[in-house]
Amino acid sequence: MTEAEKLPTEISVQQVDQLRKSDQPFCLLDVREPDEYQTARLEGAVLLPMSELNQRLEELKSHLQQRTIVYCHHGSRSLHVVMALRAKGYPNIQNMTGGIDRWSLQIDAEVPRY
Q1: What is the DSSP letter of 63?
Q2: Antiparallel, parallel or unpaired: β 93-96 and 27-30
Q3: Which of 6, 17, 56, 63 lies at a 20 to 30 A Cα distance from 30?
Q4: CB 82 within 8 A of CB 93
């Protein structure tokens, strides 16, 4: 992938919803803490808390070869993770703007807000 073809850093919850409904493979990465994950989560997401990212990066390498959408509660932690992973050479990483909170508000009200 060339610099011109690089995916945008941010992706909206609506775009993620469309991507989930398509046949395109991608990884959904939740970087919140386990208690947050227990409260509310998106089906099929891989939990890897931001606080454990550096120690567990090796686990992610197979996922990072494909498009990966990262989310947290409101989008701040996930943006930090996206920027860190892009700096490590993973251009297919995107931040879900607004996080799971916006997902609950705009896509699926069944996902609890906290």
Answers
A1: G
A2: unpaired
A3: 6
A4: yes
Which residues are designated catalytic?
72
- Mark 7-41 as b/e (b = at least 16 C-beta within 10 Å): eeeebebeebeebeeeeeebbbbbbbbeebbeebb
The CATH number of the structural domain formed by 3-106 is 3.40.250.10
pLDDT recorded at residue 46: 93
- What is the reported pLDDT for 64? 74
Each residue's pLDDT tens digit, 36-72: 999 999 999 999 999 999 899 888 888 777 899 999 9
Q: What's the pLDDT at 2?
A: 46
Centroid of chain to Cα 93? 8
